[in-house]
Amino acid sequence: MTADLIITGGRILTMEGDRPRAEAIAINSGYIDAIGDASDVEALAGPDTRWIDAKGATVLPGFIESHMHLFIGGCELQNLQLDGASDPDEIRKHVRAYASEHPDLPLVMAQAPDYAVFADTSPREVLDAMLRDRPLAMMAHDHHTVWANTIALEQAGLIDGLETSPGHEVVMGADGRANGALLEPEAYGPVLRLAGQERVSLGLTTGRDPDPWPTEEEREEDLKHLKRGLDHAARHGITSIVNMDGNTYLLELLTELRARHELQVRVRVPFHFVPEMEVADLETAKAMHERWNDDWLASGFVKFFMDGVIDSRTAFMKNDYPGQPGYRSHGRFDADRFADLATRVDAMGLQIAVHSIGDAATQRVLDGYEAARMANGDTGPRHRIEHLELVAPEDFERIGAMGITASIQPPHAPGTCGLPLDPTLTNIGRDRWEDAFAWQRLAKAGAPIALASDWPVSDISIIRGLHAATTREAWADDVPNHRFTLNEALAGYTIGGAWAEGTDTKKGSLAKGKLADVVILDRDIESQPLDQLDQTQIAATICGGMVTYTAG
Question: How far is CA 322 from the centre of its chain?
């Protein structure tokens, strides 16, 4: 049988231990038919075979984006992008220009200003000075805080506050009115509703499907958001996505795109279990897994949030936050309830992924995983913890000993990708820096490592992630440098990601019989200085043997 596609002329990194290098790849019917010496592979060519000459560039397994929010990201690409801007005067110019260009928007929505924009001033007042006569809101880069102006707060019904669950808060000012800072989804959900963007966030905020069900027009708009996000991922060499929010509606939309032959990236979608749910809701997770479980669309895992983030002081800590005696934030699930839920999900054969940033949150998650293992034995699902930004000293070895996947986002470390050191480092406290963002400490303890972006929390670019992972600097002379080698970072975005989702027998490396997911870069990255790595571009993305993106 002749090959459908042959890739030759490149530096092929297979990520396979017994043969790390190869000269050519033959692809047939969506699978790798042969990989090895160029002469052997090229002999499989026929008159209809397509050829790609990599011209000396690096050829890798397709990147696995192990933690992202596809629906939200695709939608937010249409919003005003501020990308860490911190000068209020400069932001005001961008806001007013964007508002003028979009006169019919019910809410002017901006993305990712720096926390420092607001300093010690009421966010509502800062935003009123930028735009007073139209609703304006800004989503923090971490997606755990939204800031809104007065008219947006009034239209959303939040100006006089809102009763929320612990960890969510409409922050009130000294005047008894909302000061404009909205912490976590329960608080900022009503503002997103103004923008008509609430549906895209339901998999994150409530875990439930839209009610009422979207009209055909609304559904088409949502399909456009998803397609925009999928195209964006493919342009960055991503062939597989592990989404970190989800519901049945999202999988239905992806199924429709698949029927239209517009699903060019493999996607896994969880059932998001929120604290307000009951045990019976886990039946939805089971049903999602039974219906969607193939190489292109799958569920098979349950997502939890244990806490918030360090910057807004909503991460659950073992010690008091500096300057706030007695305040450590909250775990969204109490210890006994999470242990019970983890045991039930584990017994169903489903994987668990938990957003856990503070050290108290991670300790609670580990206790729950241990309870599940004691009740069920080692059942097989490769449970994981997302972010792991601060870990108690005694818990590093626990994570490694239990084989819990450390899902890490290199661009999130303070000092990388333009992120400032504060407020993160200040909120952690100087005495805990050695336990924070301790990537190599996790790896050396034996934790499997999967790397990701958390897009749209940070840039989706895997290349920027590789740059952040390999060039990260230590914050002080007495704090270890936790950067990864280039090979370690590449593994985290390929075979490590496949291990984390339990698909390593099918993808994550290049070998005969595996799915034909390949990314071709525009240069040989092994000979490129690491500090110039982020200048590398994607030349081609191939998923299932189909070339879904080529430069130009």
Answer: 28
Of 413, 355, 364, which is closest to residue 385 (Cα–Cα)?
355
CB contact at 8 A, 246 and 269? yes
pLDDT, one tens digit per residue, over 382-392 is 999 999 999 99
pLDDT above 60: residue 552 = no
User: Helix crossing, 185-194 with 198-205: angle to 10°?
Assistant: 170
pLDDT at res. 486: 97
Q: How many other CB atoms sit within 10 Å of the CB of residue 462? A: 27
Confidence at residue 382, expressed as pLDDT on a 0 to 100 scale? 96
Radius of gyration (C-alpha) of the chain in whole angstroms: 23
Cα 65 to chain centroid distance, Å, stands at 7
Residues in a beta bridge with 520: 59, 540
Tokens representing 387 are 């972010």
Structure tokens at 99: 């508002």
Token readout for 104 is 């019919």
Q: Tell if the pTM clears 0.70, that is, is over it.
A: yes
The residue count of the chain comes to 552
* pLDDT greater than 70 at residue 229: yes
Token pair for 528: 């490129």
Q: What is the pLDDT of residues 519-551, one digit of tens each?
A: 999 999 999 999 999 999 999 999 999 999 887
* CA nearest to 177, candidates 142, 140, 148: 148
> 541 Cβ partners below 8 Å, 6+ apart?
62, 234, 235, 236, 237, 238, 239, 518, 519, 520, 547, 548, 549, 550
Question: pLDDT (tens digit, 9 = 90+) per residue, 169-196?
Answer: 999 999 999 999 999 888 999 999 898 8
The residue among 124, 125, 130 whose CA lies nearest residue 148 is 124
How is residue 221 written in tokens? 């708009």
Token pair, residue 396, equals 């590093």
Neighbours of 133 (CB within 10 A): 9
3-state secondary structure of 40: helix
Q: Report whether pLDDT(249) > 60.
A: yes
Computed over every residue of the chain, the mean pLDDT equals 95
DSSP element (H, E) containing 408: strand 405-408
* Rounded distance between C-alpha atoms, residue 91 and residue 489, angstroms: 35
pLDDT at position 196, please? 84
